[in-house]
Design goal:
heterodimer; A: alpha/beta; 4-stranded antiparallel beta sheet; about 15% strand; globular; B: about 425 residues; alpha+beta; Elongation Factor Tu (Ef-tu), domain 3; 6-stranded mixed beta sheet; 6-stranded antiparallel β-barrel; 24 strands; about 20% helix; binds guanosine-5'-diphosphate
Chain lengths: ~300, ~425
């Protein structure tokens, strides 16, 4: 008799696929929040597997801050074409133009906080009742307690004291009108799991993740790409650096790491020895010890 | 990179009374297995300094949300991750306060293993009974009892032996298959990852060794074939016009193409044509694999149905006897209508009667009770509006479990284990 057990990656994959299928079964209008980062790319891959030979039965929603890396957009469009899935883009620029939000000013200006409004507006316009995201519990302390099915009230808010207990694999997606859920199928994955899975499944990624040469400025210890979106302080200097990205957020706030890792083997070796968490390279989390939790409560992931 | 091909996942919970050293132990496991990043350590160092501590409080690593951090207590289930070259671990970190039975049950529901902490100076406490009872009730297959703070009892073999003896005496009343004991000092690291030099009298393995080697492959049921259908996959594309696949997760047994199967509730029989995922054929499907199955015959199957083998069917019925853990502020009374969720099926149900309540500290049954309050556990009889296809929880944790949902507020009210 063979050994009847799964490797950890297979078990995590089976769990994520189960959750994605539950979402489609329990909700009327699900969607996948697609950031262009590796976690949401993995989620798109899992969704494809979950429903094959059907096409993915929900749209991808991308909240375009207007500050994206061009590589992200190119990649997004080619992936959408390949999967034959519908893409909806919510534009922060439009929210600004319509006066729904006010742009931050100053050298550290970021559109990250503004995304929340555009996101909630987009979900409401499309009447999305379940928005799947690629967030993982290992990313940040506030996420360690997040559920797979995370209930949001009619204002899109998360109440950490009032989450439903989650038992076995019985997910309770019942809700009242106007409420919705955020769902995190890869909750139990770590950064290492994601990279190993990308390698195992041979999943294509935007070039940003691999080592390349780029003009950068170093601000408060964070390596930021030079771009039209970033205002230089008087004493700041642009330098050519060999870098790669560990997450792909907005250009003005996503920090790069110096790295020669130009293929998956090298990245995995690097991840295995890296001593800072992924989100540590994002300038927005440094705003305060509970920055993530505060934004979460207001409707950002 | 063949590590990732064979590495298994072990999910465990930790339980202990307040101050038994649970957070310190988890911090120690994360720290010694090098799963803590520099910026996390920095954050904890800063927090420790702000609080005026003399030492870096590793327990802060596992403290989560703001209000909890302010109160200095953990009040929910938090999940932690670490890996060694042998295994990946998911810790469901649950608190030990009396009012949080609900969280322990939640964490225990998906666990392969429970670590129960005992403070060597205090020995067995009321909470130890409760934690062990919940582990046995939720049928966690493996329990490791860690006798902590051995440094405070001079690493005494006698103290350890006495606690082991006491524990075995009361554990014999419970249904726990595999119990192991380890004397540790979470603070100093003795017998956690590295062998203790202070307790040469202890010849057993360290905690981490046990976690890495406990045999979990046979924890799942590979005998009774159970495939609750999650959804039907019909592509409606020209290329796959006639494709009709049943998507779901195998919850028991081993399914192979060519097997005779029976579909519940219709009772129709057919044969498995293909088992696949993403178009790739699967030779043998077993728990907990997510797959898509096709059958030889066109029969009407929908979500909530179950595919089984004709000669091994689950119980089919509307009446259930259930051990229930009540998780809501408003207590349960007899004759309450609720929504019941079991595998991929939802239906209306009524709790007809509360048969008895279990005192979780003494394991005594209290009969003639009117209600089940928050965090109480009792045996109830339930009548479902539709037939369910179920096994006893002791036989299969997935096809033997239910949750109850409030039809008005949609809250999850209770977790139930079918007897
Ligand atoms: N001497 C000693 N102290 C310990 C040990 N483990 C934990 N402690 C201390 O016991 C106290 C409570 O520990 P903590 O991990 O916060 O307990 P929790 O409430 O179970 O999470 C803290 O002051 C720890 O430093 C141990 O093995 N030896």
């Amino acid at each position: 008799m063979g050994q009847y057990y799964l490797s950890h990656l297979k078990e995590l994959e089976a769990e994520a696929i189960f959750v994605i299928r539950e979402v489609v079964s329990q909700f009327e209008k699900p969607a996948l929040l697609f950031s262009g980062g590796k976690d949401s790319i993995v989620l798109a891959h899992l969704s494809k597997k979950a429903f094959y030979p059907s096409r993915i039965p929900f749209p991808l929603i991308h909240i375009d801050t207007g500050h994206n890396f061009p590589e992200t957009i190119i990649f997004r469009d080619s992936l959408v074409g390949e999967l034959g899935v519908k893409l909806v883009v919510g534009s922060v620029q439009e929210s600004i133009n319509e006066g729904r939000v006010r742009e931050e000013t100053g050298v550290n200006a970021s559109r990250n906080a503004l995304q929340t409004v555009t996101l909630l507006d987009t979900l409401e316009d499309l009447k999305i009742d379940a928005a799947m995201g690629g967030a993982r519990r290992d990313e940040e302390k506030a996420r360690a307690k997040e559920r797979f099915f995370s209930h949001r009230d009619e204002f899109g808010q998360w109440d950490p004291k009032n989450q439903r207990p989650e038992l076995w694999n019985l997910f309770n997606g019942k809700k009242h009108n106007g409420e919705h859920f955020r769902i995190f199928p890869i909750s139990n994955w770590t950064e290492m799991d994601v990279w190993q899975y990308i390698q195992q499944e041979n999943i294509a990624l935007p070039s940003l993740y691999f080592s390349h040469q780029r003009e950068c400025v170093v601000r408060d210890g964070v390596i930021l790409a030079k771009s039209e979106f970033i205002k230089l302080k008087p004493n700041e200097e642009v330098q050519l650096m060999t870098v790669r990205y560990r997450t792909c957020g907005d250009m003005p706030i996503t920090g790069a790491v110096e790295s020669d890792a130009d293929d998956l083997d090298k990245i995995i070796a690097e991840v295995a020895t890296t001593r800072t968490t992924e989100r540590g390279t994002r300038a927005d989390d440094k705003r305060g010890e509970t920055a993530m939790e505060d934004r979460k409560k207001s409707g950002y992931f | 990179m063949n590590i990732q091909e064979t590495n298994q996942l072990l999910r465990f919970t930790t339980a202990g009374s307040v101050d038994d050293g649970k957070s310190t132990l988890i911090g120690r496991l994360l720290y010694d297995s090098k799963s803590i990043f520099e910026d996390q350590i920095e954050a904890v160092k800063t927090s420790s300094q702000m609080k005026g501590f003399d030492y870096v409080d590793l327990s802060l690593l596992t403290d989560g949300l703001k209000s909890e951090r302010e109160q200095g207590i953990t009040i929910d289930v938090a999940y932690r991750y670490f890996a060694t070259p042998k295994r990946k671990f998911i810790i469901a970190d649950t608190p030990g306060h009396i009012q949080y039975t609900r969280n322990m049950v939640t964490g225990a529901s998906t666990a392969n293993l429970a670590i129960i902490l005992i403070d060597s100076r205090k020995g067995l406490l009321e909470q130890t009974f409760r934690h062990s009872f919940i582990a046995s009730l939720l049928k966690i297959p493996h329990v490791i009892v860690c006798i902590n703070k051995m440094d405070l009892v001079d690493y005494s073999e006698e103290v350890y032996d006495q606690i082991v003896k006491d524990y075995k005496a009361f554990a014999s009343k419970m249904d726990i298959k595999d119990i192991q004991f380890v004397p540790i000092s979470a603070l100093n690291g003795d017998n956690v990852v590295d062998r203790s030099k202070n307790m040469v009298w202890y010849e057993g393995p360290t905690l981490l060794y046990l976690l890495e080697h406990v045999h979990i492959a046979s924890d799942l049921n590979h005998i009774d074939c159970r495939f609750p259908v999650q959804m039907v996959i019909r592509p409606h594309t020209l290329e796959h016009q006639d494709f009709r696949g049943y998507a779901g997760r195998v919850e028991g047994g081993i399914f192979k193409p060519g097997d005779d199967v029976k579909v519940l509730p219709s009772g129709f029989t057919s044969r498995i044509k293909n088992i696949e995922l993403n178009g790739e054929a699967i030779e043998e499907a077993f728990a907990p694999m997510s797959v898509t199955m096709t059958l030889e015959d066109e029969i009407d199957i929908s979500r909530g149905d179950m595919i089984v083998r004709p000669n091994n069917v689950p119980h089919v019925g509307q009446d259930l006897d259930v051990m229930l853990c009540w998780m809501n502020q408003r207590p349960l009374r007899g004759r309450t209508k609720l929504i019941l969720k079991h595998t991929t099926k939802d239906c209306q149900a009524m709790v007809k009667e509360i048969l008895y309540k279990v005192n979780v500290n003494t394991l005594h049954r209290e009969e003639g009770v009117e209600e089940l309050a928050l965090n109480e556990i009792g045996r109830v009889s339930i009548r479902a509006a539709n037939p369910l296809f179920f096994d006893a929880y002791r036989r299969n944790r997935q096809t033997g479990s239910v949750i109850l949902i409030d039809p008005n507020t949609n809250e999850t009210l209770a977790a139930g284990m079918i007897i």
